[in-house]
Each structure stands twice: as structure tokens, then as C-alpha cells.
Specification:
7-stranded mixed β-sheet; 1005 residues; 37 helices; 17% strand
Length: 1005
């Protein structure tokens, strides 16, 4: 007999795994629960026992009530189809319709004078009676369930029941018969009428579309609008499932997730119906939640780790935008409250540090399912709140990053014996060295008012408070971990002579994009090149500092009113013609303009607003910046320009006529707006800032299928380098070497700016609470020595190393297994001294250049839109730099005429017949062709720079000859003009050698 590769064969395989029985479609079932052994812990249901009118398996329901509440069988006349039974079933179905199956299973129903238990939950360890009750639950799986009263031909492949109540449905497909999970999804959308009683909202916990490779789920069927989410493990940091040497790729669903114990856990702690009120319409919307695989996986693994290892852990969770971090944190916080091991409760209190209102609400929604929110959750906003909440028995305490250190300030010594769980939302922004120290001081209950305390005692207390505390576990969630975050919270793992750190759990940007939870903001990225010509307006030819002058000229050109107006027109025209005209996001698309500062934001706001009026556009712009700013002689705020309060900006941009949000360092991190479709960037971005800023576009919306970035300032390589770091799992390449602190201290001591006695004296006075006028004379004497005894290079070296010492110590002291009093004292001393040290006198040798030039012409050239391909491998980042010092760089002086000439040469002053084409060839086509030359690539990998240059020159000559037919002018210049040939050779070599050596010019570190 050959292998059954049909859909029915897959169905039979699943049922056999779950029940341990090889049964026919109409196979039998047992009225007595089978023993819960291995996978054979599901009963096989009979499709004929299903009552379509009441959506219950009557046989299983009656058997459960008969075994657990036998008196109710006669009271409700369950053995006969009588009016009494009909009344009970009507009451049961009414309650499920009103409250949802999850709540009915958890709390049962009341009918007349009786309370009916419909499910027994997870027994607590050692509770034999509860374990016996749990064993009486009847988990059953039914094949080919004919669910419809009207169309009796329609049947579900599988349905799962608990005690006769349906909780899940399955549609199965098989790739061997050329059908996939997408066909199952389509079948749900097309053939499963949401008006059928079984498919009404809340009647089932989940609807599952399954094939042999993938799983998708939906919590509410809405016909074509049904939203199915992946429930896959992930493979190679992306979507899908890994190969399974022991069976089908998707058998984890029924072998691991849908076991009676696992399913009970989901019902008790994850699945829920939440009600959310829209503040604008005042309407209440109900949503049913079911965890995605990685959410269930991370929370269960964190709970198991905390249960096994107790308090005192530091854990990093790298979950991308789109991972549902808010729900993961809410589910974790709720379960940490009740977590217990052999020693009792693992944690006394759970503290959540967040700045997101949505997380606050989701924690409340989650807790509401299990306990009184008011009795369980508290908001710590003032000093003393935390102590009061602990005394009141509040288990979950929510606070903000800013309030955290102050709120915890007055926790007394009585809390040293308490154990805390601290969940940090977006860890890198809330766990700087000093904030962590204040947090730890509070949680440790360090008391500064003990009598007979010596300076040494206080130093030791401060050092102890800097440590990550033994009575607290830290769970840090972030999408973009920095090196500090990885070193503090990451899991150490030795590799050779290095100790790398990686996240405890990751859900990557790659997987979130592939699963459709966020959009790929680099799929349509268009850089824009600016070309301009400057002219000298003075007869003299003074000298200026070349580097500073070039920066000033670029800033001058890009902020010139003509340039701003031209770029504003490009933005507005593009938005109307390429976004609105194409009905992006169903005609609701919004745009963000990212600017380099408040002045530039106001300029853009005025230019965009004026051009919108000129175009007779119905749409308007909003400007966003912090504080009050002087612009053209008058003080303005965002409220005075917009005509409405600042707090309304986020709501107003969602409503017409507002379509452009013009920002200066606002709304560029943490802003969650799915209607943002297009971004216009006129600000230099790199590293984590580039990722956070461009990621404002990635939020998913049912009608959002793409995004667009038009970038006037950055190049593709810089943006690629920034995103590569966080596309997959981010790993710290090595730990910070604490010996660098010894080296830095020795170097600082060697400058003899301070005496050891001065350090001791200042620290003693400071810790004793001396008045400030007793500290300043010590510091001022050191400043005088710094100014008189050190030359400029010495001052630069000392100040740089002092900053490096304080920065490194503040970070590393929290994770070192030992303490060093000398380091602590020097850190205190330098934190006071560094702000008093004057900067080395440095004359601005570019001063006056803007008065000596004018802009002759300006234009921009949009390059080809491109999909930026990211590197498909884990990224390594280096530890916190511990270098400091150095010497002052000497300015390079040059004549104004030379500066302007080289500036124009760089930015657009070459007179060609077809200058646009020539620029495109030089900036894009030629470098790409040269970089692709195999001999040149080989020389870079296996030889030195000199030999690589030889191969480069050969490759360039070949490319130029290849262009001879179509670009005679360029070939002639290269052949006849030695200066041009040298310039082009150096330019192309610099671009391609840096690129292929992995160091993109101007790229992010």
C-alpha cells in the first residue's frame, strides 16, 4: 500500500498523533477520558454528536458534567431532548455569545440556582485534588465536522473541543497535492460564512490554516477581510519553519502547542477578548487576542528561566517593530506576579518602565481578565508611590523612564529582602549608567543617613548600588540594541579568546518584514543629488580653514531659501502625483519631512504651505519642534505656527486637511502611525538614528502595500550599513576590557592636573554633604594647573581621557564582579572637574566665508529608485569605545578661490554637453562596473592597497574603452586630460576600494 499524500492523509496523521488512534472519518470515541500519556491525550470526537443549533458536542458535554457535577445531569435533563435541556443549552450559548468562549471556560456559567463549571484549569504543584479534576477535562478532536444548519455539505477538516465546547477549527492543505496554507486561508475567507453560529465572534478561540510547511491563524472570521497571521517558528532569522528531522515542519502545532497542558496555559494566560474605546468616536471595539508563536515562545522561556534561576538575572530580548512587544510585556508582567518555584514566590513586585501609553493600556487589559486592575496595578509618579504600592499589595507598578530614579529614591532598607522583576521597554533609551545606578541604589535600600559611616563606607555603598542587584531581575526589550545594552543584558558566550554577547531571544526585522507585520522601508529608496555653483563676491582672495569652510558652504547652500523652495516643490509635487494620485493606503497616505533643525523645519513649513496654496491643493502641513524659537526676528512655537496645541499634533495628522508632518527631532522615535507612507529626508542620518527615523514608515495597515523614501542628504551605502546592524540578530563582538580604566587613570595621573590628596578631599567633602563653596576651591586649583601647565595638545588629551574614564566607568561598574574604590573616587572627582575645564582656544578660521560668496545656481537630480539589499547574516557590533585624548587637529588653510573651485568641482561645476549623464556615469555606472571586476576584487581580498590600485587602474581603463562608443567626450577627457584622468582614477578607486573593503565612504560605523 503506497503512502497517503492526500489532504485526508494529513488529517488522519494529525488525529493519529493527537489521539493515538487510527480511525475512520466517522470513527468511534470513548466516554471515559483516556489517560494523559505522551501525545495520546485527545479523545476522538464523533461528528454525529455535534449539535449544529447549539454548537456543542452533546455527548462530550454530558460526559464531562456527569463525571464532575453529576447532580446537574438530572437537573438539566441532559440525557433527553427536553425543554429543560433546551433552556440550559440556550443559556450556555447566550453566555458564550455575550462573554466569549475564553471567559466561559475560565469562569463557568450560572443557570437558575446553579453554577456550572465547564473547565478545570492547571493544578498548582502538589495539589492532588486539582490534578484529579484537571484529568476529568475532555479534550476532543473531531474530523469532518459538518457545522452548518443550512448547507450540510460544508465540513471543516478538524475541530477541537474542550468538554464539548468548540475552541478551534482547522483547514488543512498539502503541498504534495499542489495546495498550500494560502489555499486554506482563501477557503476560510470564501467558503466559511462568518454569519454561521460557529464562526461568530468569540465562539472559537482560533481558526487555523495549516499545511505541511506553515501555520496561519485568525481570531475573527470576516469573509474577505479576515486577517490571518503567521504562527511559525521562523527559519534562518526569517519567516517559515525549520526542517524537522522527525516529521512534518508543522507538527509542533499539535505535538507541542495544542497539548492539553499547553492549550490550558494559553486559555488561562494569553487568549483574551479586550475592549478598546476610540476616544474620537467614543465607540467600543472588541478584539480577540491569541499569541503569535514568538510571543508565546519568549514569555514561556523567560518564565522557565526565572523559575529555574530566581532573581538576579539580566536578560535581553531583541524583538523588532511589528513583533507585538506590548502584548508580550503585558503577558510576561501578569505571569511574573504569580511565578513560584520550590522556594516560594520568585518576585514580590513587577516594575514596568515605559513611556508608551499603549503598553500601559495593554497591561491593564490583560490584568482585567484575571484580577481587579485597581488592586493589582499602580502608577508610580511621585516620591513615595512605590513604597505605598508595595504596602497596599499592588503587584505591578508602572512608571516612566524619567520618573523612575526619583520614584525609587526613598525606598528604605526594609526592601532589601524583597525581590523585584524590572521590565524595561526599549532598553537602550532607559538604562544609561547613571539612571541604572539611581535605580539600583533605590532597590537596594541604600540608606545615606546611617551614623558613624565613614567615607569608605559610603564609597562602598555607592559601588554596591551601581551593581545589577542580586534581588532584581531585569528583562530588557528593544528592537535596536546598542553595544552597552548587549554587554549589560546580553547572554555571554565564549568564542576563542573573546566573550561575545547575544540576546536571550530574538524576533528579527527580517522575519517581521517577511511575515508582513512591518513593511520594508528600503524597498523603494531614492537618493537625490544636489548640484550647485558658487561665486566669489569679494575682490580679495583671503584664506579660510578648508574643512570648516566646506561644511559651512554646504549648510549655506542647502538652507538657502531658493534651495528649500525647490526641494519643497519636489516633495509636494511628488506626493500629489506619485502618492495621492495612486491612491496609496486607500487615499489616506501621509508624508513626513525630516529636517536637520528647527530653523530648517520652519523654512520648510513655510515653503511647503505656500506651494500647497499655489497648487490649489486641499491639503496642509503641520510643523513639529520643541520649545520656543526665534525666526526672522520673532519668537514662534509649533502651536503658534500650526494654530492648535502641541498635544493635538498626533491626532490632527490623521485627519484632513493635514497630510505633511514636518519635523525637527520630534516623532522620529517611537511614533506609531500606520498612515505614514512617504518620507522626505533632508538631514544627515547614520547608525541607529537612521534605522529609527526611516522605520516610522514601516507600520502595517490593511491597505498599505509599499512605502517611499526620497532622501536629499544621505547615500545608499550609509543607509545600508545602518540597517545591516539590526536586520538580523545583533551580537556584541567582545566585552569591554576593564584594564582600559587602569590605563586611562595612569595617563590622567601622569598629566598631574590633580593631586591624590585633592581627589580624596573633594570626595570626602561631597559625601559629607559640604556646601558647594568648599568644593570649588579644590576644582579651581586643578583648572588653573590645567590651563597653565598643559599645552593645547595636552589639554585636548587630558579632557578627552577624563570624559572617556567617566563614561566607561559609569557603564562598566554596573557589570564588573569586583569593585575598585580608587576608580569610584576618581569618577566622582572627574564628574565635577570636567564641566569646569575650558575648551582649548580655537579660532574659527572659516569665519566670514559666507559673506564672501553667493549662490549662482542650484538644482537637484533624482536618482533611480532602488531596493536596498541588506546583508543576510547576524551583525556584530564592537563594545563601548574606551579611547580618549589625542591632540588638536591643525586646520588646513586655503585661498577662497581654491575652496570655491574645489567645492564647485565636487558639487557640480564641470561643463559637459550632457552633464547629467556624465555625473550619473561617474557617480554610479563606472564605480559599479569597476567594482564588479573579478581581478580587482581578488587583489583587494588577497593583496595590499598598492597592488589593488594597479588592478583598479586596469579595470577602469577597460570600462572607459567600453564607454567610448556612447560617451566620446568622457573618453577624450580621460585620454587627453591628465588632471581629469588623475582625478577620476582617484575618485573611482576611493569609492570602490572603500566599498569592497567593507568601509563605505561616509558610512556609519
Amino acid at each position: 500500500m503506497s503512502t497517503d499524500i492526500s489532504e485526508k492523509g494529513l488529517e488522519a496523521l494529525i488525529v493519529a498523533d493527537m489521539t493515538g488512534r487510527k480511525a475512520s472519518v466517522g470513527g468511534g470515541f470513548s466516554e471515559d477520558p483516556d489517560p494523559f500519556v505522551g501525545l495520546h491525550n485527545w479523545l476522538l470526537g464523533d461528528p454525529k454528536a455535534y449539535d449544529r443549533a447549539w454548537t456543542v458536542d452533546l455527548v462530550q458535554l454530558s460526559a464531562f458534567i456527569g463525571a464532575t457535577q453529576p447532580t446537574l445531569v438530572a437537573v438539566f435533563d441532559l440525557d433527553h431532548d427536553s425543554p429543560t435541556r433546551q433552556k440550559f443549552l440556550a443559556r450556555l450559548q447566550g453566555e458564550i455569545g455575550k462573554r466569549g468562549i475564553i471567559d466561559v471556560l475560565r469562569k463557568g456559567v450560572k443557570h437558575g440556582a446553579h453554577e456550572v463549571e465547564l473547565f478545570y484549569g492547571t493544578p498548582s504543584p502538589g495539589n492532588l485534588k486539582a490534578a484529579e479534576r484537571f484529568a476529568l477535562n475532555r479534550f476532543s478532536v473531531t474530523r469532518q465536522l459538518r457545522y452548518s444548519r443550512d448547507d450540510t455539505a460544508h465540513a471543516l477538516d478538524l475541530a477541537l473541543f474542550i468538554n464539548g465546547l468548540p475552541i478551534a477549527t482547522f483547514e488543512l492543505k498539502n503541498s504534495l497535492t499542489k495546495q498550500t496554507v494560502e489555499d486554506a486561508v482563501e477557503q476560510y475567507k470564501r467558503d466559511r460564512d462568518p454569519r454561521e453560529k460557529l464562526f461568530e465572534f468569540g465562539r472559537c478561540i482560533v481558526h487555523l490554516a495549516v499545511d505541511d510547511a506553515q501555520v496561519k491563524f485568525c481570531t475573527q472570521l470576516k469573509g474577505k477581510a479576515s486577517w490571518f497571521l503567521p504562527f511559525n517558528k521562523g527559519w534562518n532569522d526569517g519567516a517559515g519553519n525549520p526542517p524537522n528531522p522527525g516529521g512534518l515542519k508543522t507538527d509542533y502545532l499539535w505535538k507541542d502547542i495544542l497539548t492539553p497542558v499547553g492549550l490550558t496555559d494559553i486559555i488561562e494566560n494569553y487568549a483574551q477578548i479586550v475592549e478598546r474605546r476610540d476616544p474620537k468616536t467614543n465607540r467600543t471595539k472588541r478584539e480577540q487576542l491569541f499569541p503569535r508563536f514568538h510571543q508565546l515562545d519568549v514569555v514561556r522561556k523567560l518564565l522557565a528561566d526565572a523559575k529555574a534561576k530566581g532573581a538576579g538575572r539580566r536578560v535581553l530580548i531583541q524583538h523588532s517593530a511589528g513583533s507585538g512587544k506590548s502584548n508580550s510585556i503585558a503577558w510576561l508582567a501578569h505571569q511574573l506576579v504569580g511565578l513560584a518555584n520550590a522556594d516560594g514566590q520568585v518576585f514580590d513586585s513587577v516594575i514596568v518602565v515605559t513611556d508608551r501609553r499603549i503598553l500601559d493600556q495593554q497591561i491593564r487589559d490583560t490584568i482585567k481578565q484575571f484580577a481587579q486592575v485597581g488592586a493589582t496595578v499602580g502608577h508610580a509618579e511621585h516620591s513615595g508611590d512605590l513604597r505605598r504600592f508595595i504596602a497596599d499589595g499592588k503587584k505591578i507598578i508602572i512608571t516612566t523612564v524619567q520618573k523612575f530614579p526619583f520614584i525609587l529614591d526613598d525606598i528604605g532598607t526594609q526592601h532589601r529582602d524583597r525581590r523585584f522583576s524590572i521590565i524595561i521597554d526599549e532598553a537602550h533609551s532607559s538604562q544609561g549608567g547613571r539612571a541604572a545606578a539611581a535605580l539600583n541604589t533605590a532597590l537596594a535600600g541604600v540608606d545615606d543617613d546611617e551614623e558613624d559611616e565613614t567615607v569608605e563606607d559610603r564609597i562602598n555603598a555607592i559601588m554596591a548600588s551601581r551593581k545589577m542587584l542580586a534581588n532584581a531581575s531585569y528583562f530588557a526589550f528593544t528592537a535596536t540594541p546598542k553595544n552597552k545594552t548587549l554587554e549589560i543584558f546580553g547572554e555571554p558566550w565564549p568564542e576563542g579568546d573573546k566573550v561575545k554577547h547575544r540576546p536571550f531571544h530574538s524576533y528579527t526585522m527580517k522575519q517581521a518584514i517577511q511575515e508582513g507585520f512591518i513593511l520594508d522601508v528600503l524597498a523603494d529608496y531614492t537618493p537625490v543629488n544636489s548640484y550647485y555653483r558658487l561665486v566669489k563676491t569679494v575682490e580679495a582672495d583671503p584664506e579660510f580653514d578648508t574643512k570648516r569652510a566646506t561644511k559651512k558652504l554646504r549648510r549655506y547652500v542647502e538652507s538657502n531659501d531658493h534651495a528649500i523652495r525647490l526641494k519643497a516643490e519636489i516633495m509636494v509635487d511628488h506626493f500629489h502625483e506619485q502618492v495621492l494620485a495612486l491612491n496609496k493606503i486607500g487615499g489616506q497616505a501621509r508624508a513626513m519631512v525630516v529636517t536637520s533643525g528647527i530653523e530648517r523645519a520652519i523654512q520648510y513649513y513655510q515653503a511647503v504651505s505656500a506651494y500647497l496654496v499655489e497648487r490649489k491643493s486641499p491639503y496642509r502641513a503641520i510643523v513639529a519642534f520643541s520649545g520656543e524659537h526665534e525666526f526672522k526676528g520673532s519668537k514662534v512655537t509649533e502651536a503658534s505656527l500650526n494654530g492648535f496645541p502641541s498635544k493635538d499634533i498626533a491626532d490632527r495628522i490623521e485627519t484632513d486637511p493635514y497630510r505633511f508632518l514636518i519635523c525637527a527631532d520630534k516623532f522620529q522615535t517611537g511614533y506609531d502611525q500606520p498612515l505614514l507612507h512617504t518620507m522626505y529626508v533632508d538631514k544627515a542620518l547614520s547608525g541607529i538614528k537612521a534605522v529609527q527615523t526611516l522605520s516610522r514608515l514601516n507600520r502595517a495597515h490593511p491597505q498599505k502595500h509599499d512605502t517611499f523614501v526620497l532622501d536629499f542628504m544621505n547615500d545608499v551605502e550609509t543607509i545600508r550599513a545602518a540597517f545591516d546592524t539590526f536586520y538580523r540578530t545583533t551580537i556584541l563582538s567582545d566585552e569591554t576590557d576593564p584594564n582600559r580604566l587602569h590605563d586611562l587613570k595612569a595617563s590622567l595621573d601622569g598629566h598631574q592636573v590633580y593631586e591624590p590628596a585633592q581627589v580624596e578631599q573633594l570626595v570626602e567633602l561631597y559625601l559629607a554633604g559640604a556646601d558647594r563653596d568648599r568644593l570649588d576651591p579644590i576644582l579651581d586649583a586643578c583648572v588653573a594647573t590645567y590651563v597653565s601647565d598643559l599645552d593645547e595638545d595636552g589639554q585636548v588629551d587630558f579632557k578627552g581621557k577624563a570624559k572617556a574614564f567617566t563614561r566607561t566607568y559609569a557603564f562598566i561598574s554596573s557589570i564588573l564582579p569586583y569593585t575598585n574604590a580608587d576608580w569610584e573616587k576618581l569618577s566622582i572627582f572627574l564628574n565635577f572637574l570636567v564641566p569646569k575645564l575650558p575648551a582649548p582656544r580655537e579660532e574659527d578660521l572659516s569665519k566670514g566665508i559666507l559673506e564672501a560668496i553667493d549662490m549662482d545656481s542650484y538644482r537637484v537630480e533624482k536618482q533611480a529608485a532602488q531596493r536596498v539589499q541588506l546583508t543576510d547574516q547576524d551583525a556584530e557590533i564592537d563594545p563601548v569605545p574606551t579611547d580618549g585624548g589625542g591632540h588638536r587637529a591643525e586646520p588646513e588653510l586655503d585661498r577662497l578661490s581654491n575652496i570655491i573651485r574645489s567645492f564647485n568641482d565636487l558639487f557640480g561645476n564641470i561643463t559637459w554637453e550632457d552633464s547629467d549623464r556624465i555625473r550619473r556615469l561617474i557617480s554610479t555606472v563606472i564605480p559599479e562596473k569597476v567594482a564588479a571586476n573579478l581581478a580587482y576584487q581578488n587583489a583587494q581580498k588577497n593583496s595590499d592597497k598598492q597592488n589593488a590600485k594597479i588592478e583598479h587602474d586596469k579595470a577602469l581603463a577597460g570600462v572607459i574603452i567600453g564607454l567610448m562608443k556612447d560617451d566620446t567626450e568622457l573618453f577624450k577627457q580621460f585620454s587627453d586630460n591628465p588632471e581629469f584622468k588623475r582625478w577620476l582614477t582617484d575618485t573611482i578607486f576611493s569609492a570602490t576600494y572603500d566599498r569592497t573593503a567593507g568601509r563605505p565612504a561616509g558610512g556609519a560605523p
